[in-house]
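User: My advisor asked me to double-check a structure prediction for GtrA-like protein domain-containing protein before group meeting. I don't want to rely on an old file, so could you generate it fresh from this sequence?
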Amino acid sequence: MRQTRAMSLVEAIVNVFVGYGVAVTTQILVFPWFGLHATLGDTLAIGLIFTLVSIARSYCLRRLFERLTGMGRLTIAASRRR
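Assistant: Sure, here is a fresh prediction for GtrA-like protein domain-containing protein from the sequence you gave:
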């Protein structure tokens, strides 16, 4: 069963929010280990920057894989065993 476009959008939005939360929480926990002391505002801004970079990375990789798949250069090994 294929995922609808609406559910793909919901999944992408939830993924971004969860990723942002994980990034901010990780920074709050890890920064002090390295002697870094950022304000909550700084931590939220840094998390936003990393989130935007992650979205761009995911989009570029998705488009690359789509192009490779469309060109027939990328196949699943199991499909060649037939």
